[in-house]
Amino acid sequence: GENVEQHPSTLSVQEGDSAVIKCTYSDSASNYFPWYKQELGKRPQLIIDIRSNVGEKKDQRIAVTLNKTAKHFSLHITETQPEDSAVYFCAAPDTGRRALTFGSGTRLQVQP
Amino acid sequence: EADIYQTPRYLVIGTGKKITLECSQTMGHDKMYWYQQDPGMELHLIHYSYGVNSTEKGDLSSESTVSRIRTEHFPLTLESARPSHTSQYLCANSAPGTEEYFGPGTRLTVL
Predict the structure, then answer these.
(1) B17 CA to chain A: closest CA distance, Å?
(2) Best mutation site among A5, A36, A43, A48 for testing chain B: the one with the most B CBs within 10 Å?
(3) Considering only CB atoms, which chain A residues are within 8 Å of B105?
(4) Rounded CA gap, A41 and A38, in Å?
(5) What is the DSSP string of B11-34?
(6) N or C end: fewer C-beta atoms under 10 angstroms in chain B?
(7) Which among B48, B50, B99 has the least Cβ separation from residue A34?
(8) Are B101 and A38 in contact (CB < 8 Å)?
(9) Distance from chain centroid for Cα A34
């Protein structure tokens, strides 16, 4: 099965700084890597995803990079704002059981 | 609007009671999932389904059961609730090769 490791578990940055969250995965057959944001008391919501045929994808202030050789992918948030404060989860598919395996989460705190 | 719905949103119940958490979708997706999550913590997969009449156990040992008689519904049942079951339960679905989409969750408290 898939094993996903996520670091750091907590991250505190000043407003306007950048934040980077890193994940590694074990299943070399994995080809889809979503990132979720979960605000306090709400459901996890997809914010960006990347497929294995590209190395980077951007959407305004967020970007995701993928290194298939090293089996790791990262979330980059630039110009952070207080509303970016949340728990972020990475995920990768367990190709055996056709379900996502989630990382353990990163609690991001953006200090105004 | 196509979405995924969970009822009840909040439930407080006594130890030993039987409860069923409802999950329904109007998105027509075959795959559905149940996760248990303490607030802001890891997502633990407890059950999933590939489609009608398909149910599988996830990673977290759970004293719950599920059924999938219809594509739209994926209820989760606890035969005898215990305080250790206090948590948030999230239902999700997905289309082939795409992300999992989560419902709003049921926050369960067992006294």
Answers:
(1) 26
(2) A43
(3) 43
(4) 8
(5) EEE-TT--EEEEEEESS--SEEEE
(6) N
(7) B99
(8) no
(9) 7
- Residue A18 CB coordination number (10 Å): 11
CA distance B24 to B18: 20
- pLDDT band of residue B61 (cuts 50, 70, 90) is low
Long-range contacts of A97-102 (CB under 8 A, 24+ apart): A97/A1, A97/B48, A97/B56, A98/B31, A98/B50, A99/B31, A99/B33, A99/B45, A99/B48, A99/B58, A99/B100, A100/A34, A100/B94, A100/B99, A100/B100, A101/A1, A101/A2, A101/A3, A101/A4, A101/A25, A102/A4, A102/A36, A102/B42, A102/B43
Give pLDDT tens digits for A36-95: 999 999 999 999 999 988 899 999 999 999 999 999 999 999 999 999 999 999 999 988
**pLDDT tens, position by position, B13-59:** 999 999 999 999 999 999 999 999 998 899 999 999 999 999 999 88
